[in-house]
Design a protein that fits this description.
alpha+beta, six-stranded antiparallel beta barrel, six-stranded antiparallel β-barrel, 13% helix, globular
């Protein structure tokens, strides 16, 4: 019997060692890891549908990058930490669903990356940008609501909406589109998501989702840092997709906003609920 148990234990260890989790890549870098960089079945956003959405152009020593973000007060924008790495300054487009027709523009005065951001597994992938000049809220620009700490808006099966200017085509000639797009995502449990990516990537402050109407719907390059909303509340920040591709049918990952409410308010003050 002892020999039999030992053999079973060895078999279990062997099977555990054979587990291979999917690799992740930040949504900012997705275009460099795959051939198909489109959000399949996304929808054009009508004017005024997402008054909190912003487009970010980040300037680095190596060039420029595009990301998304959300207005959370007259002075602050919420985005992903991986969008901020090596960025010297941001240009911020607010109040328009068209990038070439901004309602207002601002430049960054301060860039705040979460101190526990881990670029290897994209844990704590969240950051803040303080605008050099405050915006007037109302009309075309509204602050998105931030959930109370410990308040769950992400029950598996719930539909949430992601929006942004991510790529919608493939190939070297693709550019970030002028018109904002959106798509509904279906929240899945962290336990289900960890079966794909492992527990080092999927932690308590992670949300995962699959396309609500088509399996290959997902955010893609250019959507990084943008909002995942439920009922007008921002429940997540666009963070990662599978290295296999935005349209691979594998879950996309988001930072769970409610896990960082206290940190956000420690920098920005009280926010809309």
């Amino acid at each position: 019997m002892k020999l039999f148990l030992t053999i079973l234990a060895c078999l279990a260890l062997t099977q555990a060692a054979e587990i291979r989790y999917e690799e992740i890549v930040s949504v900012r870098d997705a275009q460099m890891r795959q051939k198909d960089t489109r959000i399949v079945n996304g929808h054009p956003a009508p004017a005024g549908r997402f008054p909190y959405q912003v487009h970010l152009t980040g300037f680095t020593n190596a060039g420029a990058l595009s990301c998304g973000g959300s207005v959370i007060s007259s002075t602050w924008v919420l985005t992903a930490a991986h969008c901020q790495v090596n960025v010297n300054s941001f240009n911020i487009i607010l109040g328009s669903h068209l990038r070439n027709a901004p309602y207002q523009t601002r430049t960054s005065a301060q860039i705040v990356i979460h101190p526990n951001y881990n670029p290897n597994n994209l844990n704590n992938d969240i950051g803040l940008i303080r605008m050099g000049t405050p915006v007037t809220l109302g009309g075309n620009i509204h602050a998105v609501r931030i959930p109370h700490h410990g308040t769950s808006h992400t029950i598996p099966g719930s539909r949430a909406t992601v929006s942004g200017w991510g790529l919608t085509c493939q190939g070297t000639g693709c550019v970030i589109p002028n018109e904002m797009r959106w798509v509904d995502m279906s929240i899945i449990s962290n336990a289900q998501c960890a079966q794909t990516y492992g527990n080092a990537v999927i932690i308590g402050s992670t949300i995962c989702a699959l396309g609500a109407d088509a399996i290959n719907q997902n955010p893609c390059s250019g959507d990084s840092g943008g909002p995942l909303t439920y009922g007008g509340t921002q429940v997540g920040v666009v963070s990662f997709v599978a290295a296999a591709g935005c349209a691979s049918g594998l879950p996309s990952g988001y930072v769970r906003t409610e896990s960082f409410t206290n940190w956000i308010e420690s920098h920005t003050g009280h926010l809309p609920r």
